[in-house]
## 1
Amino acid sequence: MMGTRTMNDDMFTPDVIADPYTYYGQLREEDPIHWNEKYQLWVVTSYDDVVWLTRHHELFSSAVFKNDPRPAYPDINESDLGLYEYVRQYQADQFIQHDRPDHLEMRKVVHGYFTPKSTEVWRPFVQSAINDLLDEAEARGHMDVMRDFATPLPVLVIAQMMGVPRQDRPYVRHLAEKLLNIGRGEPDRMKPLTEGMQGMIDYVSPLVDERLVNPGDDFISVLAQGEKAGVFTRHQVLVNTSLLLLAGHETTINLLCNGTLAFIRHPEQWNVLKQDPAGWAVRATEECLRYDAPVKSIQRIASEDVDIRGKLLRQNDRIRWFISSANRDPKPFAGPDSFDISRHPNPHVAFGSGIHHCLGASLARLEGQEAFKALAERFPALHLATEELAYQPSITFRSLKSLPVTWN
Amino acid sequence: MARTVRVTVDHNVCVGNAMCETIAPKVFVLNANRQSEAVDPAGDTVEKILDAAENCPVSAIIVEDAETGERLFP
């Protein structure tokens, strides 16, 4: 295993959290199917292997919480083991935590709501929400992109999709923030996480009752129809509603923050975007998704013994595939560590691949396109208000803690 | 006479989501790379083919009128 023996083989150390690309890049070059002793899991880092693995769903189960009896990692407080059991059962009911044939039946219920064409109808709403948020920021003269822009935007969009009344939005946002603990590493993360999960169930339950009687064109009605059709249980309807909030929230925040930071760090690319924001918005968003992807890695469980280029992955082994390494693989991407918004084609795996390819990809793309376009049009002199940036200690998400900027 | 269509899948874009195969299994089949191939554009109705194209999460499926070349999707 060459150099990996000598390097500190831990994905949660501060240097790997601050810069995942050096560590995972070294693994990709030296040991692309790597056994991590500390967390007892396989770390898959090359582009070809990530694509192959995600497209062989019959070999690598997504029913991670159902099929994996091992404890949480990193460790949680011993007193919170009961809470982890709640989290496991909650997560296990998410449609993304299922394999075929159940996954296909569940995905079919929600798939049509998120196609590129269906998503396009949300563009005017997203534009208007962005305008409102940037109006407020402009009046202040500075903003924390995280707190003032990237966090409220997806919550506004999702709340609208769920048909949440305007006066309830702050409460939904409060729950969404608790749910963010899902990808964190702190030992006391189970308490706020389970509060967020139970809070969502309690909040959404009466909405589901109502939409079963009076269906509308909102996402809860779509899920409620899935219950009527016998595809979802009630608990699954409730859990998948909060999945929308969970999956569509942190990921979009990271796209907007990491992308904005990439532009600030690469003024020449910012200049390109500013010349023609509408013209570059699509490719710029794809490059942001590739260069500093919102999701770093995702887990699977081996459904059977699998041999990958001489490494034997045993049935039930934990496997994590690393988007943040695959997207920097020099094989498909020339100059992989350069941020280049003219890159095309750009077959990044920020949304994964195969049957579990991110359901909300089109929505995320749309929000990214409109956000980067608006920032370039309105704040051409955008720059950092601090050099003190830090990331959440997560193996799943590439999440800045804050991103203070100004434009004067 | 029913319209005949030309169906192309852009392999720079296709992610193997396989929804096309679910909707029109006689037209779309996954290859060894688990990307979709339009093996038989006459295997299903044009409506089903357009439905499959619309449900592609990355808009990788291009449908054209085989005679006139008119773009039907996207």
## 2
Amino acid sequence: MRLALCSSVLLTLALATPKPSAAQSATDVAEGKKLFGGLCVTCHGFDGAGGAGPPLNRPRLLSAPDDTALRAIIADGIPNKGMPRVRRVTDDEMRQLVAYVRSIGKVARTPVRGDAPRGGQLYAKLGCSGCHIINGAGGSLGPELTNIGVLRGPDYLRQAVLEPAARLPKDNLAIPARGYNEFLPVTVVLRDGAEVRGIRLNEDVFTIQLRDASGKFHSVRKSDAVAIRKETGASLMPSYANRLVGGEIDDLVAYLSRLGGAL
Amino acid sequence: MVLAALVATVSAQAPYERLLKADSEPQNWLTYAGSYKSHRYSALDQINRKNVSSLKLAWAYQIQRAGIVETSPLVVDGVMYMTEPPSTVTAIDVRSGRPIWTYSPNIPTDVIVIGSPPVNRGVAILDDMVYVGTVHGHLIALDSKSGVVRWDIAVGDNKSGYYLTLAPLALDGKIVVGVSGAETGIRGFIDAYDAKTGRLAWRTYTIPAPGEPGFETWGKGSGWQTGGGSTWLTGSFDPELNLLYWATGNPAPDWNADNRPGDNLYTDSVLAIDPANGKIKWHFQFTPEDVHDWDSNETMVLFEAQIGGRERKLLAQANRNGFYYVLDRATGEFLTGVPYAKQTWADGLDAKGRPMRKKGIAPSIEGTLVFPNIGGAANWFSPSYSPQTKLFYQAAREMGTVYFKGAADYKPGTAFTGGGGRHIQGDDASGAIRAFDATTGKMKWEFPLLSPGYTSLLSTAGGLVFGGSEEGNFFALDAETGKPLWDTQVGGAVRGIPMSYAVDGKQYVAIAAGFTLFVFSL
């Protein structure tokens, strides 16, 4: 019993953010912010607000429930999830990065404006579930949105709705490999003149695999094609900029930001 | 006593004389790169342009422990000697694909392998022994028939970060090895050991000590003690000139030169060494004052060609830094240097081959985009030279990196790199297999690859170039035109090094990819 009590106390202590001395902590956070600026903002956004990678400005990070896990992620990345080991860091640099990441999780975030339930109704009205799955329901052509509120910040979600072609997703799927645009539209013109347009599922030196908008799968040998056009700057998802007014966009973003559970 | 006498009467399987004349027995593959000239060329032509489209799997061998396989197998008289990660040697009967023996050294669980994955690129064979370098910094001699240890010595202290991934090079009575570990601030060296006893014959440091030539290129600090200059790839040898050519790697810390101002000799160089005593006869530095981690540990191809109406003995290398170099290998004279991939760091090379660096290309806290990437336009993976086409074949990596500068605190056996980088990869990067006129570096053809990879190339008298891709393609191109003639999907990144051999009158091509060694034939 005493042992159990001790270990539960220890467990609580381990889960709580460690508290170094105030002066050391402030310097660590400042230095960590500089490092974060160089190494992390590209994906995680300024002040960790999120970008192509998940926002870090939350008190609870799904993949880093404690500082040991956070250090491991910074040191080794998360394989197959697009988080690389950006570079080796010294012990001091690691401490500083961890201090900064935890510090931004404590800052009260600007609440996401908009009415989430109204956003949910909009989602249904617009027919988004024709291409997106949430909690098992919907069509599978586009990215799954079940946890999108945890994986992306509100600014990214806003851009995805208004300018989906501006930035295709990357590093969410193990296939294709890291760094490749996901859901890239590709048009293939075959030797008989037939054209196939679809999203790229995978590719290698000699072959490319597509799924067209009707859901049909195509396996193409590049030598059977007279042209293969990779449409960077395009997306099969239409922009909703002209179909939503300001308040509606906020509502939709608020709804999407809630997907993935309580923050 | 009786046993010793018995051993003495049996003639050695692979004496030095056989290695010297490796070209004359194309059915075997006696040394890492096929021969001392490092052509990675097979004179076998049973598999050729006309029939390669029928190539199919003959057999496969799957490695015992998951890891990246970078092996270049040897085949000697029907037995293949290959290596598996991290430092395992396996002998395989090539007729059946069945292993005959396997040896794995005891690698401590706290082994330090910083700077590369824990891989092994192959063994050397000499007489009746097979030699392997290990990730815990040892060189081990095994009986070639049984895999039993003859001797086992520590080349460098792994606690300071020294380790070995390269295939050793067997010379006359000597085994030459280099070391890895610049990412932990080792002081690099090349060692030659007595093949029979494992006793050190000579050691040549790649970083000069105070008073030694080249020391003046390290500034006033103590940077030379942790200078790097690893020697982690198998060199080449010219027995007529009696020169051993060995390349050196990056200075340490990789991306931060604050404590090592100057050219940092002899990092990122080729050294021409007297194999009898290790003395440096000449050197050429590819990348002085390197801050991008552009090791010059790429294969050096030795070939002859006419330049200016005169037959010259040449050394060619497609360097990590994006330039293809041709040197006179007798003197080290720089003859040609041209870019073979996108590079944004130099305005070219001057008349002596020294790069004319641009401004603003050094790593920074906020990140500086430079081509080529950290892994280089080329790296350890083998080029091939065909004496038939006189072309130099190289897989090129077309990718930039945003280079970061960071702090570097030296602690033995820990990362001492001072920064790092983020690749601009995926659809923004690519690769290509390129064929150059070997003498001039002028490109004759290129075959596009989807991504920058680590594919080695094998050219053959059948008029073929074999190569692979990160996506698992393994294929044959027409050596004259680059046209693809055959391809297959092996299901894992092709990181192995291709070679060809023959047994019972049939030619085979072997390549490791994923966790498997694949062997193809007609």
